[in-house]
Specification:
homodimer; alpha+beta; seven-stranded mixed sheet; two-stranded antiparallel ribbon; DNA-binding
Chain lengths: 224, 224
DNA sequence: CCAAAAGTGTTAAAACTACACCCATGA
DNA sequence: TCATGGGTGTAGTTTTAACACTTTTGG
């Protein structure tokens, strides 16, 4: 017998950051054996991006600065016939923000490195992997990577970010030269002594925000 | 009073082609004053891409060779509270296929050039413009443009395609050199005398299909 | 023989790649 | 003073961009 074909709408978000030199993804515990992406159901009058923001804020206390629609998975139709429409977003947060360890929630929410992912429910593993691919792709021709850094950062931070996401090493001098030529950074005048207190302190930079959106148009800005 | 929040799922497709030297989009007549994208509701057990294919086939008799998900618009909530989820796809068809004029359907379905678009219903104008942007973007780093040409084509055809989509003129010698270096074409041995019978006949080429997918990975293949 | 489109190389400028040493700091 | 990470320039190669004439065909 044909069932009434209801539809279930869900939003899931792949929140990514750079931490300890690797790209990590935010997952929440689902049961003893599985994790899942932060996700939920939009309120009845809520735009989807708002829902995505709210869901991440509610489940992880994280306020995302960058958020974009990733893909819509709409082919799953459970036995009851109610098709599931899963609109996936991906978001980036600066490494500085990931203060999850400080919450007592470590058991129920955590960051996972790309090569160390736990079993996930439904199609979440696939969603994560689409997000990673997309991020790699976008990095080359948009300024998206900047969203992963705090306000002030060193050139080494920036280079590490690109290396981590692209998965290859870059030449330090060539990297700095190109960034310099692009003219998108301004020195803050401040310095930061390196994390383990060892070595020469590095200058801190910030992005010139006016340049920020100008960039996006002219393809292939960061051809590393 | 809060209404029961049903959800309506629709699929719309932006079908694009190159014709008469410009990029055109397929629209169907909606009423005396408005046109719309081909669209419809997926069957209860039908995957979304299948639905997109079927809808275009049914409404225009066109069998698309290239089809990709474009974007999902999910923020429209009419007065009755039933949110509309509109999953948009974009597809490409070779110029040779657009035999619409031959059908007696010219009144109800037609191709429209980018700079000559009629009033459309709902958000369809926006969907079309997102599709055009995406196409422009993709052209630079994938082999997507090939889908717009018939099996056999001239180098002039190919160059025209790139010029039309990118919206700028390209140098003939540089263009041919790059295409040649890429090694993705093979001569058919045939020639075709130009459309108006005037001028020297051009050699016809086809794509080496084995190369086809190899390409997609290494960013920035067509940096014109 | 004229109009129209196809086809073909060279050169200068710019971008990219590879590469090695000195500097400032804390321990 | 040493270990650690920050910072800097050059030369060879590759890629890109600009540019004009000859060839083949149909009318």
């Amino acid at each position: 017998m044909a069932r009434k074909s209801g539809i279930k709408l869900t939003v899931v978000v792949v929140v990514m950051t750079i931490s300890e030199g690797v790209l990590k993804t935010l997952l929440v515990r689902h049961d003893d054996n599985h994790w899942s992406l932060p996700g939920g159901i939009p309120h009845s009058d809520e735009p989807l991006t708002k829902a995505a923001e709210r869901i991440v804020l509610e489940s992880a206390g994280i306020d995302m600065e960058y958020l974009e629609q990733l893909f819509t998975f709409g082919d799953f139709i459970p036995d009851n016939g109610a098709r599931v429409i899963e609109v996936a977003y991906h978001g980036l947060v600066p490494s500085a923000l990931l203060r999850i360890d400080k919450l007592a929630t470590r058991q129920t929410i955590s960051w996972f490195a790309e090569d160390d992912q736990p079993p996930m429910i439904d199609n979440h593993q696939e969603v994560v992997s689409v997000a990673h691919q997309r991020l790699r792709g976008k990095l080359a021709y948009t300024a998206v990577g900047f969203e992963l850094l705090p306000d002030k950062f060193t050139l080494a931070d920036l280079q590490n970010l690109y290396e981590v996401i692209l998965g290859k090493e870059l030449d330090k001098r060539n990297f700095r030269k190109k960034i310099n030529d692009l003219g998108i950074l301004e020195p803050t005048g401040e310095e930061r002594t390196s994390r383990k207190g060892r070595g020469r302190p590095a200058s801190l930079y910030r992005f010139k925000s006016e340049v920020f959106h100008t960039i996006e148009t002219k393809g292939d800005i960061f051809p590393f």
